[in-house]
Amino acid sequence: MRPDEGGLTYRAAGVDVARKAGAIARLSAHTRRTHRPGVLGDIGGFGGLFALDVSRYPEPVLVSSADGVGTKLKVAQAAGRHDTVGIDLVAMNVDDVAVQGAEPLFFLDYVAMGSLDEATLDALVRGVAEGCRQAGCALVGGETAEMPDFYAPGEYDLAGFCVGVVNRDRLLDGRDVRPGHAVVGLASSGLHSNGYSLARRVLLRPWGGAFDLDDRPPELGGRTVAEELLVPTRIYAPALLALRGRVRLAAAAHITGGSFAKNLPRVLPAGLGVELRRGTWPEPPVFGLIQRLGRVAPEEMERTFNLGIGMAIIVPPEDAEAAVAALAELGLAAWRIGTVTDRPGVVIRR
């Protein structure tokens, strides 16, 4: 059947290519805010272009990461607030790159939704651009997928991809970690982007929890539940890079899904472990609220949530105080929370 005979079109099937092209063109204002030396061109090509400065990195090692935001997106969609989860997306990627000593260079995003909502798309990419600005990397491109029948109205998904660079002799791989080294924890901004399948079931009524989005439990200090759950993930990459010249940084671990038990061993030499002591850092009240209302066992909390520590660094014990002081100057609260041991695994003392 020909179009002039009333045949079906791509637009009628749910994908408006012309509208999508116009929306993407308007996003360039957000991407240009993130440009840094090395960026070539603008969005719209088949690939983002970046020229590596080999005078700064004569033996460059490229470090890459891919991640998403998880079911925190369900909270954003239920609350109708889409301007912060893009920051989460960037944080989950750039901090994975930074813990290996790399400077995040550029970022790409993937946004998929059932039917293009231009206001939602603009808010999402605005958040991604803000995250890139905070991290010091460039948003050089991405993909917007309109997928009718795949996502329900109002639903979308996000994925992000980051590339960073470190000179080979500056690669942070944990090989210098020794028993007796100090573990220093950097404060999280809250739940970050992990554990939301459990947090939603405990806290939010649409998933069987205790509160509506606009409720203000006294434990949250005046914030609504939605506001607490949508606090963006903290971006540590610039602070980690600045710290390299001030203390002897042996390793760093991004405390994400699986919390301490999963993430700290990833940066330890074989045969080593860590002992942490709860109570050496303040835990944001949201974690206690989840534990109490959900009757969640302490062990389950410790393997699900960051409990107030979003990043951990490992330094010689004589550098621990200097690391805490340097991080304070960089605007980050930090505490000595544990010690590297000669016994594999993560032990948490209470």
Automatic annotation (TrEMBL):
UniProt KW keywords: ATP-binding, Cytoplasm, Ligase, Nucleotide-binding, Purine biosynthesis
Enzyme superclass (EC): ligase
InterPro entries in the cross-refs: PurM-like_C_dom (IPR010918), PurM-like_C_sf (IPR036676), PurM-like_N (IPR016188), PurM-like_N_sf (IPR036921), PurM_cligase (IPR004733)
Catalytic activity: 2-formamido-N(1)-(5-O-phospho-beta-D-ribosyl)acetamidine + ATP = 5-amino-1-(5-phospho-beta-D-ribosyl)imidazole + ADP + phosphate + H(+)
Its EC number(s): 6.3.3.1
Protein's recorded name: Phosphoribosylformylglycinamidine cyclo-ligase
Pfam families: AIRS, AIRS_C
GO annotation, biological process: 'de novo' IMP biosynthetic process; adenine biosynthetic process
GO MF annotation list: ATP binding; phosphoribosylamine-glycine ligase activity; phosphoribosylformylglycinamidine cyclo-ligase activity
SUPFAM superfamilies given in the database record: PurM C-terminal domain-like, PurM N-terminal domain-like
Lineage, broadest ranks: Bacteria, Bacillati, Bacillota, Clostridia, Eubacteriales
Tree of life domain: Bacteria
Similarity field: Belongs to the AIR synthase family.
Pathway this chain belongs to: Purine metabolism; IMP biosynthesis via de novo pathway; 5-amino-1-(5-phospho-D-ribosyl)imidazole from N(2)-formyl-N(1)-(5-phospho-D-ribosyl)glycinamide: step 2/2
Species of the source: Caldinitratiruptor microaerophilus
Cellular component GO terms, alphabetical: cytosol
Domain PurM-like C-terminal, chain residue ranges per copy: 178-348
PurM-like N-terminal domain location: 61-166
Gene giving rise to this polypeptide: purM
UniProt-annotated location(s): Cytoplasm
